[in-house]
Amino acid sequence: MSPDFRLVEPGGPLRGRLRVPGDKSLSHRAVMLGALADGTSHVRNFLAGADCLGTIRCYRQLGIRIEASGEGLESAWTIHGSGLRGLVEPSDVLDVGNSGTTMRLMLGVLAGGLQGHACLTGDESIRRRPMGRVVEPLRTMGARIDGMNHGALAPLSVRGGSLRPVRYVSPVASAQVKSAILLAGLFGEGSTVVTEPAKSRDHTERMLQAMGADLEVDGLSVAIRGGRSLSPFDFEVPGDISSAAFWLVAGSIVKGSDIVLEGVGVNPTRTGVLDALRRMGADIEEQNPRLALGEPVADLRVRHAELRGTIIEGAEIPRLVDEIPVLSLAAACATGRTIIRNAGELRVKESDRLSAIATELGKLGVVLREQPEGLEIDGGTIWRSAEVDSQDDHRMAMTLALASLLAPRSVSVRRTRATDVSYPGFWEDLARLR
Ligand code: S3P
User: Is 396 in contact with 360 (CB distance < 8 Å)?
Assistant: First the structure.
C-alpha cells in the first residue's frame, strides 16, 4: 500500500456549492431499522463510507438482502426487511471495523432479535472503547452478553433471547447507549424507558416513530413498547451536519470564502455547532427548510467572518460532540479565549480527541491547554508548518487538513485515509472549493 500522508498547501478562498455525504448516524439506522421492517425500504444518499458499509456487511451476514444501484449521489440502496424475528445466526464473526455506532446499536438488536449466537469485533480503536455502558443495561434486561474483561470490551459474544422491559437512567448523554436499549426494547414485552442526563441525538426515536413503533418522548425520557411491527420507508438521507461542519468552519476562517452546502440535516439535537459558531460571530444562513422522514433539512450558506472566543459546556456538548475537533480550529482563529468543559466523552471516541487536538494543533502553533474534561484554547494563533498525525481518527484528519490552509508553508498530514470513515470524497471536495 502507498504511504498514507498528504502535503496540504496553504491558501484559499474556498468558494462554491457542495452536497456533503449522507448523515452517518442516519445511514446506520436506515440499514438497522430497515432490516427489521416488514417489507422493502429504499434509501438514497446513503453514506457509502467505511463505517456504514461495515453495517451493511454485518446485516448481510445476518441474512438481510441489501442491494445497491447507481453511484454517488445517484446511488439507491434497497433493504429487504425481514421483520422483528427475521435475523439469522451469522456463520462468522461480525466485524464492525472502526464503528462504535454499529457495535453498540447492533448489540441491542441482537440481544433481543437474534435466534442464536453472534460474535462481534472491530479494529484496534474499537477494541479499546467502552462497551460496558451498553452491555450492563442490556444485561439488566436479561441479555446474554460476554466478552473481554467481563464484557467491558470487544470482542463480545451475544446469544439472543427474550428480554424484559426496564427503566434505565443512563449516567451518560449518549445516543448509542439510548438507542441500544430502545432497540432491545422493540423485542421486549411491555414498556422500556430510558432517561438521559442531557438530550443526545434523537434519530432512532424519529425513525422508529415514522415506522409506526409505539414510542413516546417525554423530556429526557423515551418509552418504547415492544412487539409492534415496523413499516418500511423511502428515505433520502440528509447531508451530515458533522461533515458540513468542516466547511462551516473553513468558510468562516479562510478570508474571502463563500460556500453553500445543500440538503444538510439540521435536527436540533445536532445543531450545537451552528449555535456555537454563531455565538462566535460566524455568518451562517439557513435556506429552504424541509423535512425527510421526520428529520429537518436545510441548505446552509457560510461566508468568512471575524470570530471571537466562546464557552462550550453542559447540555450543548452532546449537540456538538463530534464537532469539537473542528470547533477547536475555529477557536484557534478567533480573538480571545474559548473554553470547552464537560467534554470527557471525547476521550473515548475514535481517538482520545482532547489529547489529539492538544497535541496536533499544538504542533501547528495553537496555544491551548488540555484539561481532564475539556480544553482552553487561545485565539489569534500564529500558524507554523509542521508534520502532524490524524492518530487514525477521521475527524482529526479533516481538522488538520483545514488548519493547514492557514500555515505559512505546506503541512504534512499523516494517516489521511481515515477520512474514508465518514467522508469519502473529502479531498476532492476540498480541491473543488479552492
Ligand atoms: C452517534 C452518537 C455519538 C457520536 C457518534 C455517532 C450515533 O456517540 O459521537 O459519532 O450515531 O448514535 P455517543 O452516543 O457515544 O455520544
Answer: yes
Residue 206 has pLDDT above 80, yes or no: yes
The percent of residues above 90 in pLDDT, for the chain, comes to 97
> Residue 262 to residues 81, 299, 398: CA-CA distances in angstroms?
30, 4, 20
Distance 106 CA to ligand 1 centre (A): 13
Answer yes or no: is the C-beta of 183 below 6 A from any ligand 1 atom: no
| Cα separation, 296 vs 3, whole angstroms | 41
Ligand 1 center to 11 CA (angstroms): 33
The torsion of the CA quartet 13, 15, 18, 22, rounded to 10 degrees, works out to 30
CATH 3.65.10.10 fits 24-223, yes or no: yes
The pLDDT of residue 75: 81
pLDDT tens-digit readout, 95-153: 999 999 999 999 999 999 999 999 999 999 999 999 999 999 999 999 999 999 999 99
Q: Are 66 and 52 in contact (CB under 8 A)?
A: no
Give distance in angstroms: CA of 276 to centre of ligand 1: 19
Does the active-site annotation cover 258?
no
pTM of this prediction? 0.98
User: Up-side HSE of residue 347: CA atoms within 13 Å toward CB?
Assistant: 11
- Pocket flag, ligand 1, residue 25 (CB < 6 Å): yes
Query: Which pLDDT score, from 0 to 100, does residue 72 have?
Result: 67
* pLDDT per position as a tens digit, 224-250: 999 999 999 999 999 999 999 999 999
Q: Are 160 and 114 in contact (CB under 8 A)?
A: yes
For ligand 1, is residue 267 a contact (CB within 6 Å)?
no
CATH 3.65.10.10 given to domain 5-20+238-433: yes
Residue ranges of domains in the chain: 5-20+238-433, 24-223
